[in-house]
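Weekly modeling sync, notes
Attendees: AB, CL, MP (scribe)

Item 1: holo prediction request
CL wants a bound-state model with guanosine-5'-triphosphate before deciding which constructs to order. AB pointed out that an apo prediction alone won't tell us much about the pocket. Agreed to run with the ligand included and paste results into these notes for async review.

Input as submitted:
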Amino acid sequence: VSATRPFDGLSVANRDGLLSPLSNDASDKNLMEDQTVNNRQSAGRSGTRLMAQITDRLRGVMGRLATNEPIERKSRRILRNAGEASKKPVAEPTGNMMLSKLKSTGMNLKRSRPDQIHHLEAEIQGLKKTLRDVMASVQQNQTHYLPEVFRQVEQRLRNNDIHEALTKAIIDAVYSQTQPSESQDRRLLEKRLALLVLQLIRQAPAIESVKTPGYKVALLGPTGVGKTTTVAKIAANLKLNHGRKVALITSDTFRIAAIEQLQTFANIAGIPLSVVYSPTEMQQEIERYRDYDFILIDTVGRSQKNQRQLSELKEFLDAADPHERHLVLSLTNGKRTLFDVATRFSDLNPNRFIFTKLDESTTPGVMLNLLYKFQLPVSYLTTGQTVPTDLRPAHLKEMAKLILYGNAGV
Ligand SMILES: Nc1nc2c(ncn2[C@@H]2O[C@H](COP(=O)(O)OP(=O)(O)OP(=O)(O)O)[C@@H](O)[C@H]2O)c(=O)[nH]1
Ligand SMILES: [Mg+2]
């Protein structure tokens, strides 16, 4: 099955209101606690509660999909047909009925035996396979039986660094919608997974078409994730590809090289750049550029663990009062670090995610952990060091493929 097929022709609707953040700290902690398959049973009661919470929510989404999505109607029609087809061998005539039927079709009993044996053999093969699946489930300490295709997909999501509880809840939600006759249907499983993931992620509207004058866009995040490079890419894209009037402000006076880095770019691109040393200066420079289409603001990289530095950064951001605050995160970071960074930076009220270094990432599935927990739309993905080309506006289907199939999916 082609990796791209489950996305063909899908439409996305009714996404609003499907998600609600997990509420308490204990849940947050549990969401990121990695429970391997083998220690599922020791996950404790709060883990089980969390699982039930996530599973319920995802099942709700699946339920809505079943009633709202045009594609699901299509799937149901296909399923209905498949269901009817699968019923035929079950409604097997017996005794006299079979005899008269065979006579009426001109077949004799001698010829029917090989057919019956063939049918029985197929049935035995099916039972053997089911038994193997059940045995495998039992060996893996799973609390319930999962068909092999589901287990394979579950492992694939886990390998893509999607959190254990989330992986399991997604698989459970899809499995709960699956009829026994569909349990080996990989294509249908992939399609339902794709539909579910598409409901869990959001893409930000493109900024190039924004008409508000002096529209302020700030990038913030930990050190070295690619904030300055990405600001330059966005600025160049707005100016060169969309003919918009752009100004740059940086509050990163911490590193001399940072100012030089952006100044060199600004000179080449013909974009004005202001360096601000205080929140007051930030306000003054914003005022200066208020007639520009866009004011892009680069900020100093800060460790999520340094509360004092984060408070200082917050003062600069509050002085700028940007329309958009993009939290920039590198996909090369591990899932725990990413979760910790996003949690600590949430005090700075980001309203977008930018995921950088997709080109270097081996597990882009980590995006789902953050998108599920923080429910922010994604504005951009970046794919390399080259300004301005290695920048992609976030696209739902591309993100869903990355989440479900890793880098091999795109
Ligand atoms: N492979 C790859 N490298 C990137 C990408 N974006 C940025 N980089 C590189 O990451 C390094 C850091 O980039 P910067 O833009 O300086 O990162 P920053 O977040 O501004 O760093 P600080 O200001 O020090 O916090 C540079 O070597 C960039 O070329 C990307 O999408 N892929
Ligand atoms: Mg920088």
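Recorded for review: The chain has a mean pLDDT of 81.
Action items: CL to compare against the apo run; MP to circulate these notes.
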